[in-house]
Amino acid sequence: RVNGERLWQSLMELAEIGGTAKGGVCRLALTDLDKQGRDLVTRWAREAGMTVTIDKIGNGFMRRPGRNNSLPPIMTGSHIDTQPTGGKFDGNYGVLAGIEVVRTLNDHNIETEAPIEVAFWTNEEGSRFVPVMMGSGVFAKAFTLEHAYAAKDTDGKSVKEELERIGYVGPEEPGDHPIGYYFETHIEQGPVLEDNDKTIGVVTGVLGIRWYDCTVTGMEAHAGPTPMALRKDALQVATRVMQEVVACAHRHPPHGRGTVGMVHVHPNSRNVIPGQVKFSIDLRNATDADCEAMDADIRAVADRISKETGLPIKIDLVSSYPAQPFNPECIEAVRRGAETLGYSNMNAVSGAGHDAVYMARLAPAGMIFIPCKDGISHNEIEDAKPEHITAGCNVLLHAMLERAGT
Amino acid sequence: RVNGERLWQSLMELAEIGGTAKGGVCRLALTDLDKQGRDLVTRWAREAGMTVTIDKIGNGFMRRPGRNNSLPPIMTGSHIDTQPTGGKFDGNYGVLAGIEVVRTLNDHNIETEAPIEVAFWTNEEGSRFVPVMMGSGVFAKAFTLEHAYAAKDTDGKSVKEELERIGYVGPEEPGDHPIGYYFETHIEQGPVLEDNDKTIGVVTGVLGIRWYDCTVTGMEAHAGPTPMALRKDALQVATRVMQEVVACAHRHPPHGRGTVGMVHVHPNSRNVIPGQVKFSIDLRNATDADCEAMDADIRAVADRISKETGLPIKIDLVSSYPAQPFNPECIEAVRRGAETLGYSNMNAVSGAGHDAVYMARLAPAGMIFIPCKDGISHNEIEDAKPEHITAGCNVLLHAMLERAGT
Ligand SMILES: NC(=O)NCCC(=O)O
Ligand SMILES: NC(=O)NCCC(=O)O
Fold first, then answer.
1. What is the pLDDT of residue B269?
2. Which of A124, A132, A280, A321 to mutate to test ligand 1, by most ligand atoms within 8 A of the CB atom?
3. What is the pTM of this model?
4. For B90-123, b where at least 16 C-beta lie within 10 A, e where not — what string?
5. Lowest-confidence segment of A97-106, B5-14, B218-227, B337-346 by average pLDDT
6. What pLDDT shows up at residue A269?
7. How far apart, in whole angstroms, are the C-alpha atoms of residue B52 and residue B50?
8. If you measure from the C-alpha of residue A358 to the centroid of ligand 1, how many angstroms do you get, rounded to a whole number?
9. Alpha-carbon distance B64 to B74, whole Å?
């Protein structure tokens, strides 16, 4: 069993770097604070006897050798960058749980057959630089190193110059790194485990995600002199589509999700009937077929609303992540870990993208969720219970040991 | 009959001051351009033999004496400031039509019993400084001179300093100025006259206006991991209220108007369920009782939606203009003018506020509408037909002469 207190202690120490008054963490990717975080984590790794390799996109691989070092490593990892109003656990937990696994193996002088590696992936959050899950995405060749290097923050600073500035451009070619199995522990970022009073979520896969921009075009006119019957109010039509985004999710249970998160009204003036409304649509579901069905559904409904109202409705796909089922071997390794350790558990589906999604394209992969308070993350009030932090790490230890062999 | 060509010529000449590439006018209140506009209009007035008085808020009164100068003047007027993307006719037409009336009287050596005055009111548009209809509002003591003086533009410049800078702080105390009758010609700013193919709108009154801010509070959460059933999506609840604003207008025909023009979603991020949505509500109707009924209606519906969804909905009144019926004598004077001249006409209700609304608190008042192209104003493409411009001015001439006596 891992040393939960030591793990908690490390989480709290890392959280001081960029710690906010409200108890959260603001440690954006490739800032000085991110460098301090990386420096601390790699120091801990070296103190635990691990070697550290950095690749060209700044991903870090912290390695504990096995008996047979020609075997591909059993890897775990996550990210240590945070949202601007982030918490102490999102990502950071996955990396430090990996280090705690190694520390525990050291404590008990346990040698593994395959080597163990703990990775931290660059810029998972995507708050400062898009795309999200950048380091793991480059590693999995979802997009090129050049594409990632060219990404700029709002001040015009590029990923390349910021990586160089903080000294985290390594020699290794991203992806030139074999992986035997990949596991990632993470807070759930949703309320399902807490609602079901379970300690461990055995993650069976990650929902497919489709992002759209929707534009409704009407005709702006003065709110006073324009009779109701003669209006082409883009917002009134847009609200119908917005409601249908949620209805569409309900029409595709149990995993369908539909969200309108972003809205821009033009000209956004109190006494002007809106002439144009643009808003985002985020659709998710468990399989690509389900995502496809939701896509067809919302487009059909929008067409009908457009015909009924006479106002054009445009729906443009802006990005798309396929659904990613996890590897059955990994899923069962996680479940066995939870069962062996006597933790209440249930199957869970990740609604959010994670570095593990990209790793699953390269190797058998799985994830371990633990509850977070009220399901809240990407918020300074994000919180998790020490006993859950410990439990998730124990399950990780079991799953990794099972795959690494002792 | 007035000289329509001369009036059109003056309109086009004034429109050159601040004229835009798209054929509109940008002549914001109390700018150098506004000064040039005022200088030109007062020069024309003096050339027509009128005396010019300016009051402390910069309202101008251009006077043609009558036979009996102890009688209160028969007044017309409007404003010469424009929206940032304004047109050539909004306001400007009302002032220049007044000058054309005087020029016509001069042409025919017609003396009137009561004096005739043409007013231009400071900052009707309210684009640069709030409140709107500032000059006429101070004149009618709807708010104080000090309140108006203190208003600042986005650069921090106050009405007082800008009025002084352009040299339009006059000696007269606002409101120290008797008015016998007040008439205002204006483009309709709506599509009703055009739709009904009428030349003249006999304006019977101005709708009451109530402006509200509505806030729906939910709970922000990640769009991915949060199941549909566990969401507190502020936007989804807000869309129901937004639709009810329009439904409420339809429930209060024929003059009920309901508009949501401005929306702010927090945090307005693609993959975050909105935690709070603020939006404006603009309700209008022909009588204060109808406005009151709409107020009660929308509040009751919002309460019901709040109870059904469990999300708090707050509705705050931010400003309110009572409905303003015009004086029956003035209404009939306008109608007789149109009938006598053989212009097609219909009763019209002004959906927008005008300087005449404040004048109606001080004297018998009325308005004359003419059609504008597609009902569009507050837009550089605002347009009106020369024959309608002429017709409205002829009706003004008749109505003013009838009241002034010859
Ligand atoms: N974990 C996370 O926030 N990923 C970003 C993509 C998503 O919205 O799921
Ligand atoms: N004419 C005009 O735009 N007045 C401002 C107040 C309103 O919205 O009616």
1. 87
2. A132
3. 0.89
4. bbbbbbbbbbbbbbbbeeeeeebebbbbbbbbbb
5. B218-227
6. 87
7. 7
8. 13
9. 10
Give A269's contacts in chain B (Cβ within 8 Å): 261-262
Per-residue model confidence (pLDDT) at position B379: 87
How far is Cα A23 from Cα A346, in angstroms, rounded to an integer? 30
The DSSP symbol for B325 reads E
Mean of the pLDDT values across residues A368-378?
94
Q: Are B28 and B81 in contact, with CB atoms under 8 Å apart?
A: yes
CB atoms within 10 A of CB B190: 27
Task: Give dist(CA A353, CA A373) in Å, integer.
Answer: 20
Q: Report the amino acid identity of residue A150.
A: A
Sign of CA dihedral A163, A165, A170, A173: positive
Kindly give the pairing relationship between strand A200-206 and strand A345-350: parallel
Residues B220-260: pLDDT tens digits?
889 999 999 999 999 999 999 999 999 999 999 999 999 99
DSSP string, A45-89: HHHTT-EEEEBTT--EEEEE--S-TTSPPEEEEE-----TTB-SS
Nearest residue of B to residue A270, measured between CA atoms? B261
Alpha-helical segments (H) within B16-158? 32-47, 92-107, 134-139, 145-150
Q: What is the DSSP letter of B326?
A: P
CA distances from B16 to B5, B27, B87, B379 (A): 17, 10, 11, 16
Over residues A245-261, the pLDDT tens digits come to: 999 999 999 999 999 99
- Identity of the amino acid at A251: R
Pick from A406, A405, A402, A397: which is nearest to A76 by CA? A397
